Amino acid sequence: MTDQPETAQFDAASRAEAERMVEALLFASAEPVATAELARRLPEGTDLARALDDLRARYEGRGVELRRSGDSWAFRTAPDLGHLLERHAVETRKLSRAATETLAIIAYHQPVTRAEIEEIRGVSVSRGTVDQLIDMGWVRLGRRKMTPGRPVTFVVTEGFLDHFGLSSPRDLPGLRELRAAGLLDNRPPPGQGGEEEDAQAQDSLFGA
Amino acid sequence: MTDQPETAQFDAASRAEAERMVEALLFASAEPVATAELARRLPEGTDLARALDDLRARYEGRGVELRRSGDSWAFRTAPDLGHLLERHAVETRKLSRAATETLAIIAYHQPVTRAEIEEIRGVSVSRGTVDQLIDMGWVRLGRRKMTPGRPVTFVVTEGFLDHFGLSSPRDLPGLRELRAAGLLDNRPPPGQGGEEEDAQAQDSLFGA
Amino acid sequence: MDGGQDVARGADTGPNAGHATVADRRAAEALIVDVEGFEGPLDLLLTLSRTQKVDLRQISILALAEQYLGFVEKARVLRIELAADYLVMAAWLAFLKSRLLLPPDPATEEPSGEDLAAHLAFQLERLQAMREASAQLMARPRLGRDVFARGAEEAVTVHRSTVHHASLLDLMQAYARVKTRDEFRPFVMDRRDLMTMEQALDRLRAMVGEAADWADISAYFPEDWQAAPRRRRSATAATFAASLELAKEGRIEIRQGDIFAPIEIRRKDTA
């Protein structure tokens, strides 16, 4: 920091210093750090948003990159350098087809109830499948749905975004096209005019 | 990387690429990485020394620095930012029962010796308890008592009065007030030490 | 492999039956054998729909229903037990098929065969889309496989310090507790400092014969009950009570000059 009285100079110095501090904090952590946590750890009055912007620009195209997942930030190695780092790869449990499909459905349709997942897959979802996704830190419970029975919903976590290198669920591959094609609509089977009993009957017909 | 045939351009690109690779390797590694190990992991013909120089220059003055220890390399938080990685957690805990009682006895009976405290509490007082109260700045040593062995006495401090909002130890409520406030439910047995007031009153009743 | 032949021929019920190649037959055979591998009837329908080799949006639901029913029929012939939901789907598809083939009944408000077929097509397309999305997701550069976090995490050092706290109330309560601790013990009468009325009475009876003049009752206390406040208090009470007893018996007289004045006694001479 500088003692120069000129505001511009002082500002430039404090801006650079803020960037350094955020850099140090994020470098030190293997896990993404939430914006709120960064703000708490930095001196009061730090322009955190600008520091993050500066940092992101600085690391653009480098061997490590600043990445956002949800409301958290982390440095991650550039995806194209994965081959160099194979030895650091951690053996992950191979996910079953049911688990990967369920995960995709939760990500693209969130917040989504178990019944909705089942309707999409046309088969009942075993408790173990969702539990596994929750265990891995990729899925968590969302708000209950304001429909009869107030069923719980599932949403993806920041850990999911971090793992798949997404800044937000809006960045899911092909999301826009799927939405445009109406494939993310919750389209009830024909003849279901909101009559719940009817819906129930047909849902079970479709394996929901 | 680029496919430009011009040597200079190719060289610049491969130089930048080498730097990126070293950056990612060092970032992802849990341990400092030896120069020989870096060389082994990088594509053949990489100018490792130059990549390390470039990287060191790039991180000069940043929030993290490239540091060499022996023949190994690692990123480390800039020394002046170490404080960001420290957190001071202050835990407020209720003073233990033994300490509170000891403190109360000192406050009500000061100056008081350890033996006297023990007599009043009816149990021995650990050195740690009094030390803790001294550490907290609520108790200090008073004058030695003019009795055999000249034992040290304990008195409460200004800090104690400050903390408890008292202007003098005489402001401490007496037993009668404690009783009136419902803090002393039972009538004490007659003639117990410290109840001079009561004894006085009754004695005078009986003409003592 | 006889069963396999059957199945291969079984697939001939489909619209492409005439052009079925050996590969197609093998595929259809595999469908039967791997029925366990399907994630439910919708998944099976989706797989069957691929044999139509058209975009899912152009798919013939009627043909698909027939393929499915053919599949279930072959499974039945082969005595392969199908889970209930496969059979439920078969029943529903049979119903859908009849709806699609028969002219609509204008009297009924139930959804038309076309609507039901369109919804099934939507479901298939949606499942297919989710399946592709899932594959795209899994193919992304993934943390711990393609992308890595900082290896040498520099943990935040937490310096813990404890501030002890006590309020004035805590302090007063602690003092009250110390001072009244004895009261919470099982009650045992401490007789050492307690003079009973009987003791006082015995003593007074023995001495009262000499008491010709008025004297303070405290004069009758034993020497070691005079000084200590607690003993003196107990002696006072016991001796006073004993005095009353003797007065009642008519052996002594008792007087007090004023409130709080000393209580005096003397022998009562019986005439």
Automatic annotation (TrEMBL), chains A, B:
Keywords: Cell cycle, Cell division, Chromosome partition, Cytoplasm. GO terms for biological process: cell division; chromosome separation. PANTHER family: SEGREGATION AND CONDENSATION PROTEIN B. Signal peptide: none annotated. It comes from Limimaricola hongkongensis DSM 17492. Residues 181-208 are annotated as: Disordered. This is Segregation and condensation protein B. It comes from the Bacteria. InterPro entries: ScpB_csome_segregation, WH-like_DNA-bd_sf, WH_DNA-bd_sf.
From TrEMBL, chain C:
Gene3D superfamilies: 6.10.250.2410. Transmembrane segments: none annotated. It comes from the Bacteria. Residues 1-20 are annotated as: Disordered. InterPro entries: ScpA. Pfam families: SMC_ScpA. This is Segregation and condensation protein A. It comes from Limimaricola hongkongensis DSM 17492.
